[in-house]
């Protein structure tokens, strides 16, 4: 753990040096980010909940629903153990054959279809791009494009929540 933290710190300092930051400014930035990040996220979650309601049709929170169903199953004594074991085993076996495929199938055992479908389509697109344009292109161009789409979708969702709250 100490080695991992030291490596992280050195990479941060190296990146800061490349952009002209001082270690003091970097540490202050990280300290502020560590405190402001959770506060901003909590405010955004409350805004989204107020606008749409967690677990509703507009803001379904499928991972939270999956976790809630697991907790309810465990506390209620009705654990679908066979379902989870089957998903884990099948997902593990398929991961040995093709990267990404096992996760898609494993997730399919407990997440809603819409989430599994988008993950499946993304995995398929990644495989096609890796084979046609090469893995280097996918990592240097494709991943930043996908990250931009994810961030853009999240920002549109937050903007929509602000609009819904402001217009109510």
Helix and strand layout, with pairings?
Blueprint: H1 2-18, H2 23-52, H3 62-76, H4 81-97, H5 101-108, H6 113-132, H7 135-167
Describe this structure in words.
The mean pLDDT is 78. The chain is 83% helix and 0% strand. The longest helix has 33 residues, at 135-167. It has helices spanning 2-18, 23-52, 62-76, 81-97, 101-108, 113-132, 135-167. The protein is mostly helical and 168 residues long. 4% of the residues are buried.
Summarize it:
This protein is mainly alpha-helical and 168 residues long.
**Bulk shape:** globular
What is the residue-averaged pLDDT? 78
Residue share in β-strands: under 5%
Q: Helix/strand/pairing class, anyone?
A: mainly alpha
Count up the helices.
7
Distance between the termini: 48 Å
Key terms for this structure?
mainly alpha; 0% strand; single chain; globular; 168 residues; 83% helix
């Amino acid at each position: 753990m100490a080695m991992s933290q030291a490596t992280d710190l050195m990479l941060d300092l190296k990146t800061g040096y490349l952009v002209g930051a001082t270690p003091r400014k970097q540490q202050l930035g990280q300290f502020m980010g560590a405190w402001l990040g959770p506060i901003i996220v909590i405010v955004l979650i409350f805004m989204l909940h107020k606008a749409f309601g967690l677990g509703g049709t507009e803001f379904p929170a499928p991972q939270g629903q999956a976790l809630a169903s697991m907790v309810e199953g465990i506390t209620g004594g009705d654990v679908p153990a066979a379902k989870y074991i089957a998903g884990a085993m099948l997902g593990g076996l398929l991961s040995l054959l093709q990267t990404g495929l096992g996760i898609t199938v494993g997730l399919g055992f407990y997440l809603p279809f819409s989430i599994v479908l988008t993950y499946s389509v993304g995995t398929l697109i990644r495989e096609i791009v890796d084979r046609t344009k090469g893995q280097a292109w996918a990592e240097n161009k494709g991943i930043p494009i996908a990250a931009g789409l994810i961030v853009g979708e999240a920002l549109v969702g937050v903007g929509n929540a602000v609009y819904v709250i402001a217009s109510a």
